[in-house]
């Protein structure tokens, strides 16, 4: 048998035109365009757009690196203006001006905006004047105890306070005191009642450490334990930054030196006053007076700059929650979107590219907006998720899908170009729609929405730009990588096959076509899949299966976000800190609610004017001077200049917030500090010592364990650090766990991972296609129809019902919609005679099915009790015996025959094989039945054999069902004994039978009311089915909502059906008829005698005898459009013109028999014994490509639509894009189905597929994932 | 369509799914369990969204320094989030049910990413109603109405969704109104016929969103049932 790839014509397959031609899905999107001119304009536009995209795709794929570079440059250029913007965040912003020529900035922005930030307008909330006091006991005396180091220095604060309060400056413009200038505050916030004792109310905002003692020296002096007083307001747990201590001392807690173990025994604190008005002269006089009173010897502070600190709007945790929610939704959106990127080399790379595209387009939009002077006033962090959602990742995904679905054999350039141009129209349309929506939003005239829309428009355009340049290029690189990897992997598979050389049969010398030769898509065989993989690969597969990397990255991201949230200056930490600092004093209970100590005890500042005369300070001064020849303890450095910088961000906001003054979007001006130095003599320190001081704190020198205390503080801070870290970690872990739980909840597909088998598990260990990728299984879940005990031999369907017959002779009828088993027609003789365990088991099954039937059948089964099932009393072998007249059909033996039990093999071989051959004849799409059953002439019908009146002939020995047909409610079964039986599909009762022939029926065709049976001896019998029932009583099965298929005529149970042999063509063929097809009023038979005959159905007249095959005919296809194709044992496929009987084309496609043939409008699909499915161009006869099937599954394929091919494999069915040869999806039929191959496959009218699958049937609905194809 | 057919017929004749009694019971139990899980999930989502969105609304009138951040989450009446949760569970179960009854399964953009997008837009609508300063309330209402209809058009496009959305939005507004009349509930400042005029829009968008989530979850359930019944 010669074979070879025969190339018929040199015409290249037209690829480019297909790109321009209207695509099916695009056509679907524009459902009706009745007006022709509009249509043409649209079409023109579309063609232009798709052509433009095509060339663009070519360009991108040709020069990837320059284009990516160019894009990067573009992004950077557009993002350049962003550098000028302040970094996002809520940290304060500073602006420094000189003190000398300070003027309150005008409310309106002046002409010189260059230096000034735009917030620097109008007066500040307050001017902060700090008096920085450094005090020390010097020289240090051995008699002193550690408490002495800060008791008397702290005590000095009260006199200093008095000085400041009572300072009055008088000049020509009047007399001013602090009271007139300072910021008057009212009540504390109601939540801060516990602080009433410590913070001033109803008066000047002036704080100092003296507030601990209500600004009363007596309380201070009588306080036995100063440290406790200070510490009792400190938070117990977390060491935080905006504590009361910081607030009152005005310097960072560690700097104060108020502790028992301070190194240099210098106490530092400030008196902080908030001024409403800035009066240069008053402040100058205060400064000079304090300096004069308490000079700082080596102070070199430059008092030239005042710092204006602007605070942004702060986001509390409460406001953060919606934000976090939107971000979570955003991440979920990105996750679910990128999950859809399929069939590329690096899924994550592409997902990253997609995210980068969206992000950088947003950055670009912001940059461009700032470039053109549109400063963003919106909170960027808030609108960002919405922008991402508006811009979306859809285009990117669509692009990827489209490119991936182009034929793999094309060049990468062309693939990209084609994919782009395929989607060009929809992309442009989507973009236009989005732009329109956003423009509508622009006309809402709400400033915030307008701004959002502006951003979104710019973002959309830049996103489009990036998609077209950046993402397309990345995609092309990815596809190219895939191609390489693909080639590497595919090479050995092709090398293993014998080279497909053009055989000697080539009738014409044709030059090889310029296009690449048709390639073969090879599915890895399951045996291959189950090979022990190398360890490295197994690790990779494990990673892929468990998605470890993905999950780790997810967890990492979550932790990172958590950390970010925690460390954000306005985020959780400060919030926690604030919380803690506010709440922990509550823990230190027992604080007596003291009355508020007014800052001005006298109430009238003028009354105290004379307390301190102006020219009096000489004694103190001289004392200080005489004592302090620059004592080593006190030194002033530049770090003291702006000591407030070491305070927390929230120091000033929380300071003011206690009085319900917000600093958000406002600023304060911090004036240069006034340095004050105190030197306290040891004598003074001893005098002010409280009697309990010595008891509480032993002298440092006599401390038995001197190391214990000095290390206490650092250890404590370390501990707090660890606590913070532990808390953060715990929070992160909790968050991860929470998200994980949510994930598990939301994706219940994972619920069965603990041992239960299901679809998802298989993705990792069964890489199905040669890209190492198996598409998601979840889209399709097959329905398994169980019930047969042996392998299924025949399948027939009319779209609503499905009839199957197994080797045991049992016929089952299923509802093709739901997969319910409606009827069981058992082979009773078989059941009765053999009582092995297996059959007993089947008995139980049948009983169950019967009860099911009766419970569900209702009206249908009303007389089932009476009629019951046909009873045939026979004691016959379960297997058909050999026929004497059987020809040698070993060439037709199915290769999967080895699955049969060996004991039955010799006797059943030819019969079974014949059945297998015959059933192939029923694979193809049946032509739709005319809805109205052609009514038989009303004539008295005599029932030949029916159940009720006459039992079966006992002489009829049991025989196997070789052919099965189903129309309406009737099942026509052709038996090996030559008997034709008509069964009621719903009731399972035998309606009539015909035993005119003796030779086995090899093939049946049931069209309208005619049945054509082909027999083993080559004769062809035409039967007519008659019903003695008026036309009007015809019932139609199927409810109104059951779909669009024409309802089949229904035979009610009381009809009398007869089946008459109208004509028998005795010698239709010289050899057994192998194939029988009927459609469009024609009956076509193919036989072992190398000929195909065409009969007219009405009069059984032979129209043509088609000769051209050099082997027996094994496959025939004919449909309503009179397309006739035949395939033979020689591997040849012929296309015929049914009207003239001439051969249209003739190709050799297979090594071995052609087992199945299907034609679509554009191509011919054939399968052969070589397990190869070939797709041919119907008009030119050129082989487009071929698909290597698994062994034994070669013949199982079907065409669902013009572009969707489904093939069977070992335990799975695969969906292919017919136009491009792309594997779309693989559906696994069952869990334990490795070895079972799909041997038959029937496509039903409602786009479902029925596969014979060992002893089971599998009903698969065509997936929704293929929506682009239908 | 074929799938939907299967869904429909399966729903109509659930007893015919498995041939054996045991697995039939299992399937029923399975279905109810799935229903319960779905309802619970929807309830949780509803409660969560109610809390978060209520927070958004509360923030508008709150000082910058909420002294008790977490407490303000629960600042409104305690029964509001459970009510929202229950309502969302009902809506989320109602939508697939009605789809099934009508026999036309919702297939437009049936994927999680689209649902997420829908939720994000819903939150965005709330955000806009809470944060954006509109010139007057008519503008606010009109904008929100346009946004809500846009939401429906973008993510739903089914007549049943539209009708149910309108009906539930109307009912919910009525209920809220009754509550307000009875003094159980209070707005900060009613602006239009004693109703915050944005309320129906928010309700409508919420119904569409929850319906979308419910439909998506129902798809899972259907698949799970199928897988389970045909595993044994």
TrEMBL record, chain A:
User: What InterPro entries is this protein classified in?
Assistant: Beta-prop_SCAP (IPR057042), HMGCR/SNAP/NPC1-like_SSD (IPR053958), Quinoprotein_ADH-like_sf (IPR011047), SCAP (IPR030225), SCAP_N (IPR057041), SSD (IPR000731), WD40/YVTN_repeat-like_dom_sf (IPR015943), WD40_repeat_CS (IPR019775)
| One of the Pfam families matching this protein, by short name | Sterol-sensing
Q: Which residues form the SSD domain?
A: 319-477
- Membrane-spanning residues: 315-336, 348-374, 386-410, 431-449, 548-566, 724-746
Instruction: Assign the protein's first listed, main location to one coarse class.
Output: membrane
A single Gene Ontology CC annotation of this entry is:
endoplasmic reticulum membrane
Q: Can you say where the WD repeats lie in this chain?
A: 1106-1146
Q: Per the record, which residues fall in region Disordered?
A: 493-522, 686-712, 928-952
Localization per Swiss-Prot or TrEMBL: Cytoplasmic vesicle, COPII-coated vesicle membrane; Endoplasmic reticulum membrane; Golgi apparatus membrane
Superkingdom per UniProt: Eukaryota
A GO term, aspect molecular function:
sterol binding
Which GO biological process annotations does it have?
Answer: cholesterol metabolic process; lipid storage; regulation of cholesterol biosynthetic process; SREBP signaling pathway
The record's SMART domains line, in alphabetical order, gives: WD40
What are the entry keywords?
Cholesterol metabolism, Cytoplasmic vesicle, Endoplasmic reticulum, Glycoprotein, Golgi apparatus, Lipid metabolism, Lipid-binding, Membrane, Repeat, Steroid metabolism, Sterol metabolism, Transmembrane, Transmembrane helix, WD repeat
Q: Which SUPFAM superfamilies match?
A: Multidrug efflux transporter AcrB transmembrane domain (SSF82866), Quinoprotein alcohol dehydrogenase-like (SSF50998)
**What residue spans carry the Pro residues bias annotation?**
499-517
Q: Which family does it belong to?
A: Belongs to the WD repeat SCAP family.
Q: What does this protein do?
A: Escort protein required for cholesterol as well as lipid homeostasis. Regulates export of the SCAP-SREBP complex from the endoplasmic reticulum to the Golgi upon low cholesterol, thereby regulating the processing of sterol regulatory element-binding proteins (SREBPs) SREBF1/SREBP1 and SREBF2/SREBP2. At high sterol concentrations, formation of a ternary complex with INSIG (INSIG1 or INSIG2) leads to mask the ER export signal in SCAP, promoting retention of the complex in the endoplasmic reticulum.
Q: What is this protein called?
A: Sterol regulatory element-binding protein cleavage-activating protein
What broad taxonomic lineage does this protein's source fall under? Eukaryota, Metazoa, Chordata, Craniata, Vertebrata
* Gene name tied to this protein: SCAP
Automatic annotation (TrEMBL), chain B:
Gene Ontology CC: SREBP-SCAP-Insig complex
Q: Where in the cell is it found?
A: Endoplasmic reticulum membrane
InterPro entries to which the protein is assigned, alphabetical: INSIG_fam
Name the segments for region: Disordered: 1-20
Protein keywords: Cholesterol metabolism, Endoplasmic reticulum, Lipid metabolism, Lipid-binding, Membrane, Steroid metabolism, Sterol metabolism, Transmembrane, Transmembrane helix
Q: How does it sit in the membrane?
A: Multi-pass membrane protein
Plastid: is it a keyword of this entry?
Answer: no
Q: Which branch of life, at top level? A: Eukaryota
Query: What's a single GO MF annotation on this record?
Result: lipid binding
- Transmembrane region positions? 35-56, 76-95, 138-155, 162-181, 193-213
One record GO biological process: cholesterol biosynthetic process
Q: Does the keyword Transcription apply?
A: no
Tell me the leader sequence span.
none
* Family of the protein in this entry: Belongs to the INSIG family.
What this protein is reported to do is described as: Mediates feedback control of cholesterol synthesis.
Q: What is this protein called?
A: Insulin-induced gene protein
Source organism of this protein record: Scleropages formosus
